[in-house]
Each structure stands twice: as C-alpha cells, then as structure tokens.
Amino acid sequence: METKTDPNHNTPKPKTQIFILSGQSNMAGRGGIIRNIHHNPTKYWDGVVPPECFPDPSFLRLTATLQWEPANEPLHADIDTKKVCGVGPAMSFANALRPRVLGDLRLVPCAVGGTAIKEWARGEKMYENMVKRAKESVKGDDNCEIKALLWFQGESDTSTEHDAEAYKHNMETLIHNVREDLNLPSLPIIQVALASGIKYTEKVREAQKGIDLPNVICVDAKGLQLQQDNLHLTTGAQVQLGHMLAEAYLTHFDA
Question: Is the pLDDT of residue 142 over 90?
C-alpha cells in the first residue's frame, strides 16, 4: 500500500483511494425502483438501504458540482438526473473494501442511464464529463490516487447487430483514451459483462469478455436477479455485484 509521510508527525499517511463509477443505468443504480401503477406511471425509490450499503465516515462522493460530501445511496441522484436512481453496486463495493484498505475511499459517480457506448467516445459529453470529474477528484491533493474505473454499460448497444459488433473496438478505444487523458497508462479497468439486454446481448457479452488488454478484467453479472423489467438488477443483486467487483479488485489490483 502506498503511503505519504506526514511532515508534522513523521508517520505514514495512507493514500486516499478513488474509484470512478461509469456506464449506464445498472451502474447508476436502479435497485429498489418501483413503478407507481395506481395513479400514474411515475417511478420512485423505495428508500431501502441494505446494511451492506450503509454509509461510513471514510466514504465520500463527488457531487455534480464537484464538491466532496458523505457518500450515501442513491449515489447517482444528481448525476443521472433524468431518471429515478436507487441502489447501485458502489456502496457495497466500498464496504467490502473497507476492512482491506488503509486510506479513505472516495467515489466519483459518472454513469447515466440509457447511454450507448458511442456517447462515451472522446469528445462526447458523457466521456468529457467523466474525464473532468476524474481529474477534479485528485486536483490539488497528491495524497489522492485513482485506483480503478468500474464500468457497467452495454445494454443500449444490444438492440442492433451493428452496434453489438462494434462494441469491442469501441470499448478498447475508450480504455485507451481514458488512460491517455488521465495520464494513467496502467489504470485498472473492471468491466461488468451484461446481465440483461435486448436482442444481441450475447454478442455484446462476448465482446466484453473478449477484451484482452493489460489491467482489464471482467466480472460477469449473468444470472444475478433482475427486476420485473428483465433489465435492471434488484437491490440484492446490486449488493452481490458490489461484492464481486470488490473481490476482483482485491484479487487483481490491491497491492
């Protein structure tokens, strides 16, 4: 574990560990989202936060206005603003890491529901906002370190064969670009292979699992419980996914 010496006490100060959260709705979190069928088709979050997602004094999140605040569910409420956000995988991920890391944990939510990978190309709004937020997370503090990008996206690329076939190239390009733009050539990337999709889900899953780049690993969400829409993970499934992401990170990247 990298540390910095505190000049006042001459004792090592643990690095603050930062994780970028990006992709679309299942990363933004739809766990616990309920459709109000009695009055109108609006949706709301049931407000249930499982113990695995409880806040911790050492967990912070970067707000839409680039300020640090205590991290609570729903993490993406001010980022994915056109949809109702609920429980995602990041808080259970952070809680699973807590016993194993020394420094504080900071989460940078960037995911937006319904976005296709072409919207995460360099120069596009989603991509540029993610890079801006990632840079801001370490600005002015050399004791902060971006440890990994957690990526869960692809459902929007399963509707046409063309998009599904282009996914692998587009994802590899995104990985190259974000590492270059953050000046982190070895930035760990943990991507999630889809649990759901529309027509060409398996083709996108094959692309995700077929990416063979250094420090890029894939966690498979297939088989995790889905809500009635057969698209979004339940709260319990999000907790499971967070634990899977934490295990992958600790196994492959924690040093």
Answer: no
